[in-house]
Amino acid sequence: ATTNHKVKETVALELSYVNSNLQLLKEELEELNSSVEIYQNDSEAISVPMIPLGLKETRDLDLMDPLKDFIADHYGEDAALYEKEINEFMDLRQAMRTPSRSEAGLELLMEYYNQLYFLEQRFFPPHRPLGVFFHWYDSLTGVPSCQRALAFEKGSVLFNMGALYTQIGARQDRQSLQGVKTAIDAFQKAAGCFNFLKENFSNAPSLDMSAASLNMLVRLMVAQVQEGVFEKFVLENTQNNFITNLQMAQEAARVEDVYTLVYRTMMHPPVKDYVPFSWTTMVRVKAEHFKALSHYHAANALCDFS
User: Are residues 125 and 194 in the same domain?
Assistant: First the structure.
């Protein structure tokens, strides 16, 4: 093809066409995964949307032959006796790729994560790689990453647990006391997942699991928890008096502080070029909104009550 000028031009044209299609798909995926409208609750009442994360996607993985070979070589047993158990493990992995947005989905991810611990202890010795590659895609950009290390698989599953908690938190009806309590709990657990990931998994090949991104996600989840705390206070304190207004002003100011910190984190490289524009805009708007609320309630306290 390279010696025929006409064929070379045709190939280059087709390649540019394919690449432009890939770019369009990538942009559509980024828009879908970064949209704050997805996973919100279905209530007709107006509520400020929370920021959820999309789950990381992964490819199919066939562990049958690598595990059977290891069983035969390392343990000296008939590998055919363990086909049923290997198939059960692979079925579990397939199921955890599409968990339901509920406690059942979280339990499924946790079950698979726990199985990976035992798999790592018995079948993934550091001195002998199995030759198995784990493929996962970035949760925001869709960019693929690949590693042999089982730690990448464990980290990706843990990331999906955190992402699933954000989706559960975002879909709650925060006009009710129970809904806002559930949302607070979900975002706290999401922060815990991302913080554990930041402290225990290093050298992640994908941007969403880098230390800088995880630090930003932890702060974002903490801010959304604080926003839920403010909403909970409003629901629990309906009386209009001096003390209540001052306390609301304080709670709103606290929310503004944490969202301002999140915004500064998002504006710092390398996160700045990675975080979706809709996220940074929403965080900036929320910081200004709660700053205004704090002034409003402080003014109410000072002007309406002697």
Answer: yes
The position carrying tokens 């940074």 is: 280
- Is 231 domain-assigned? no
Q: Are 256 and 290 in the same domain?
A: yes
Query: pTM for this one?
Result: 0.85
Helix (H) or strand (E) holding 146: strand 144-147
Q: Tell me which amino acid residue 86 is.
A: I
Q: Which pLDDT belongs to residue 205?
A: 86
For residues 77 and 204, state if they share a domain. yes
Are residues 107 and 48 part of one domain?
A: yes
| Domain coverage including residue 293 | 237-306
User: Do both 164 and 301 map to the same domain?
Assistant: no
Q: How many CB atoms lie within 10 A of CB 78?
A: 10
Look at residue 220 and give its three-state secondary structure: helix
First-to-last alpha carbon distance for the chain, in angstroms, is 87
**pLDDT for position 48:** 80
Q: Is 19 part of any domain?
A: no
Rounded distance between C-alpha atoms, residue 97 and residue 221, angstroms: 23
What angle do the packed helices 211-236 and 177-200 form, to 10 degrees?
160
Bridge partner residues of 145 (DSSP): 136
Structure confidence at residue 98 (pLDDT): 92
Angle between helices 5-34 and 277-304 (to 10 degrees): 20
Cα separation, 202 vs 197, in Å, equals 8
Which residues are registered as beta bridge partners of 300?
Answer: none
